[in-house]
Amino acid sequence: MKNRLNIILWSILLLAILFGTVLELRAPLNSSHRLEQLPKAGALFASTPLPLSPQEETFYGKAEVLKRIYRLGNTAFILIAIDGSTNRHAVHDPLYCLTGSGWTITNKQTLSIDGGSGALLNLSKGEQQRQAVFWFSNGTSRHASTTRYWIQATVRRLTFGNSGDEPIMVILQSIPNVEPDWERLLDNSIFLYDI
């Protein structure tokens, strides 16, 4: 009986190792095409690419990252979109990242957006005040739950991409001295829902 149990346990371990190896060796299915499709300019907006800092390049590694400043009329915001399908560690909890960068989150509220909801954060660091909005998008639904993102990304990897597109993390940051009307801005920026 004990010998049979050992055989079963070793078989399960071997299958888990084989499955893990197949997952690692299989080429990742990335969603970078969604980042590339995001318009750079339109009738009411224009954007300029922003370079990643050396620290960001190191942190994001092989992940596809889009960083731009968008201008809509007299307002502007910074967009960072991260496709973690080639580096799952690049997509992280924005709250952790912001507090790790020295920001204090003074308020967090849910913001209704097309296809779901995002999170609106008020931030402070010394005398600086900023706002940020973030969500995770699989192209059809949007949410601000890091746990839900991890579950979606894990299921996608386990099903070899058959469960849907990789969720992309979208972060919008206010620029210094500008506090956008996020609801109005998002209503006028439907191009953001292309990712």
Could you list some keywords that capture this structure?
alpha+beta; 8 strands; 32% helix; 195 residues; 6 helices; 32% strand
Coarse morphology = elongated
Percentage of residues assigned to helices: 25-40%
- Estimate the mean pLDDT confidence: 86
The percentage of residues in β strands lies in: 25-35%
Structure classification: alpha+beta
- The domain tally reads 1
Parts with pLDDT < 50 across at least 5 consecutive residues: none
Number of strands: 8
N-to-C SSE string, H for helix and E for strand:
HHEHEEHEEEEHEH
Major sheet = 8 strands, antiparallel
Treating each run of at least 4 consecutive H or I residues as one helix, how many helices? 6
Compute the separation of the termini in Å: 55 Å
Q: Cα-atom Rg, whole angstroms?
A: 20 Å
Topology at a glance:
Blueprint: H1 2-25, H2 32-36, E1 45-49, H3 54-60, E2 64-72, E3 75-83, H4 94-100, E4 104-113, E5 116-125, E6 128-137, E7 142-143, H5 146-158, E8 168-174, H6 182-187
Antiparallel strand pairs: 1-2, 2-3, 3-8, 4-5, 5-6, 6-7, 6-8
Could you give a quick summary of the protein structure above?
By secondary structure, the chain is an alpha+beta fold. The protein has helices at residues 2-25, 32-36, 54-60, 94-100, 146-158, 182-187; strands at 45-49, 64-72, 75-83, 104-113, 116-125, 128-137, 142-143, 168-174.
Description:
- The protein has 195 residues and is of the alpha+beta class.
- The protein has one domain.
- Helices cover 32% and strands 32% of the residues.
- The chain has six helices and eight strands.
- Strands 1, 2, 3, 4, 5, 6, 7 and 8 form an eight-stranded antiparallel β-sheet that branches.
- A hairpin with a 4-residue loop joins strand 6 and strand 7.
- The radius of gyration is 20 Å and the shape is elongated.
- The termini are far apart.
- The mean pLDDT is 86.
